[in-house]
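Tokens help. One example:
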Amino acid sequence: MARTVWDSTVGKKTVMAVSGLVMLLYLVAHMIGNLKIYFGTEEFNHYAHWLRTVGEPFMHYEWTLWLIRVVLVVAVVAHAVSAYQLSRRDIKARPSKYVHRKPRSSYATRTMRWGGIILGLFIVWHILDLTTGTVHSGGFETGKPYQNVVDTFSTWYGNVIYIVAMLALGLHIRHGFWSAAQTLGAGSRTRDRALKTTANVLALLLTIGFVAVPVGVMTGVVS
């Protein structure tokens, strides 16, 4: 039964929609947490430490954080695999030539695939930079996330990579939220305008919220 659902186009779109919404919820929480950097070193570092102690004493140190990471990895993989397979299926089903020219799609729609690739590469870089410290520009210090963030955004390439990725994220969310709503049956003639507005607002707020961190470092507000 599960195999049959997964093999269907509707099933893959549903997996994309659900996994996308899981990641969206995480992004909202992550953005709010990131903005704590404006409250100073102690506040931001305390927040980072709190993430590792959530659920104690029932959950061991970092268990909740690792549970969140596992859920996110599953969501990212499911989203990427279903997107790739749907893309391949769409290409195979497309005739070699169209009798009529297809209507011009939105910029976000036409860049969803490249946006997904950009975000995938960014996730790898972001983890290697601020989680493991492997490609970190300065002297990565475990337990000092505030300084690590400032180090990253004190370099021109750290800012470029992050801002480009966040712009791609905004476009991805703008189109993805709308598509997910349609796939899950939330769309209707009366709700479409509200859903489109929600998609635009979410995309704008998340983009501004995430970009605010490197901008804060570049302008010296965060140092």
